[in-house]
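Changelog note: in this version the structure field was regenerated for every chain. One regenerated record is shown below for reference.
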Amino acid sequence: PGARGPTIFSDWQTQIVNSIYLTPEGDRKAFYYNTWKDVVIPGMEFDPQFYLPNSRQELVDNPPQRKYLAYFRGTIFHREGNAYSRGLRPRLHYLFVNRTDIIYGTKVKDCDRKCYRKEMTESVFCLNPLGWTPWTLRFYQAVMTRCIPVMIADDIEFPYENEIDYSTFVLKIREKDVDNIVEIMSGMPEEERERRRREMDRIWRIFTYQRPSEEGDAFYATMAELARKHRAFKTSKEMEWT
């Protein structure tokens, strides 16, 4: 569950503290997460229009017009104030308030899942500002729609970082530099944008859970990462796992 990890279990510290956690919460500052022991996995997208190969290939064969510079729909202003997202999401709102080429707003009733996906496919960049934690399903949805992910979360750890060079397709902006986000996005040449989309074309399936699972998808990649962790553990005297 979002932002809770193993703490959802009241007795986790006595029963499973040394277990390997498979979690989408790749938060390097979370007290329960150990980057040496645990495995960050992709969040699960259940909607076939996102994860099915035929749906995505259509975006490659018939690329839609990318008429928006950037896109985000989700919680912006939270009742907990700046404790939520460290104030980044409201800050972005004020940065974008007069931009007609950026969709930055809350979810709306007249925009269903099909509309949501369409808006992503028509955007160059998909924004992923942290919320309560660094991770968000939007990152994976962005890759599935060829929308360049913009990560604004300093403490995030991605899945399979030993195998994937995220700098080849993700635009990561430090939280302290967020005021420059429009200039950074606008300044990326079109050939570089297309190169990043092609890189996503090459690896996107590793973030999807195909039905049934198939070689190269998230399930197979997770099993490979578990095997790698197990081999590293066998040569270590630092801790025991259950």
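Spot check on this record: The mean pLDDT is 92. The longest helix spans residues 218-234.
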